[in-house]
Amino acid sequence: MNTTLDGNQSSHPFCLLAFGYLETVNFCLLEVLIIVFLTVLIISGNIIVIFVFHCAPLLNHHTTSYFIQTMAYADLFVGVSCLVPSLSLLHYPLPIEESFTCQIFGFIVSVLKSVSMASLACISIDRYIAITKPLTYNTLVTPWRLRLCIFLIWLYSTLVFLPSFFHWGKPGYHGDVFQWCAESWHTDPYFTLFIVMMLYAPAALIVCFTYFNIFRICQQHTKEISERQARFSSQGGETGEVQACPDKRYAMVLFRITSVFYILWLPYIIYFLLESSTGHSNRFASFLTTWLAISNSFCNCVIYSLSNSVFQRGLMRLSGAMCTSCASQTTAKDPYTVRSKGPFNGCHV
């Protein structure tokens, strides 16, 4: 339960994880370690993803790259935003009062994660159109419409959580590392229901509907191709490999990203609903579910780097370019080193 600290504890810093406080240091050690560790992973991972996308033109051949880059930028901003509670826990002075700081931080992270959730739903719609309407796909999904869609995602996400500033209730627990947010800013069941109906439920239903139909259609295509090849092989006496639906492999990559997103966010959503409906809260549960959900901002980088071969080639080329740049600087400083006559390879794939 979120309770106010008594007089005996007034000298101790406010810690959601009470066992994370040590007498030898004047800050919440465990909270700081978890948040700083996640912040470093999120920022570094998404910077790498953004650089690889800019350095690998083949990745931009898919229209979904617009949404994946949007998610990467949103996740990067999440990591940068996490510097605020990190500095607060380390007792760095903040330019504005704590109540407003935690409200701003909670609002920003809620909007950024809403952008990721809406982008995943748009990716599933994009893949659904690509499979169900392949002949008209290029006329339906244009760069201009994709940019408009991304703009609407950011606008919609901002509007959904904007009422939190007008005393509708707390949009989430991202700011609960601040004492005012944890003890004085409470969730409201009606505002929680509003967020679920406007964001969580539609996004989840869209993802379930589109991917279910994508895999059903791909399975039908694979079955038809195998039957056709079996018929021709019986006539010609030759057997061939059955080729799966060409979009299925890429859809599987996106499906893994979506699945991990909802797996990591499900405990947070369940706790959010329970706390809003019952009024009972738990500091440990709020911290654990919140930062488990935020860790998804780094998981997207890992999944995409392990699942997409073009991304892996772009990452290797980017690493090679950085190593070449370091080697050339070392060569320039060392007059006795023989310089390579080969041209410098850029990061293009």
Automatic annotation (TrEMBL):
Pfam families: 7tm_1 (PF00001). One of its GO terms (cellular component) is plasma membrane. Residues 45-304 form the G-protein coupled receptors family 1 profile domain. It is found in: Cell membrane. Keywords: Cell membrane, G-protein coupled receptor, Glycoprotein, Membrane, Receptor, Transducer, Transmembrane, Transmembrane helix. It is a multi-pass membrane protein. GO terms for molecular function: G protein-coupled receptor activity. The chain crosses the membrane at residues 32-59, 71-92, 104-125, 146-169, 189-214, 253-274, 286-307. PROSITE patterns: G_PROTEIN_RECEP_F1_1, G_PROTEIN_RECEP_F1_2. It comes from the Eukaryota. Belongs to the G-protein coupled receptor 1 family. This is G-protein coupled receptor 21. It comes from Daubentonia madagascariensis.
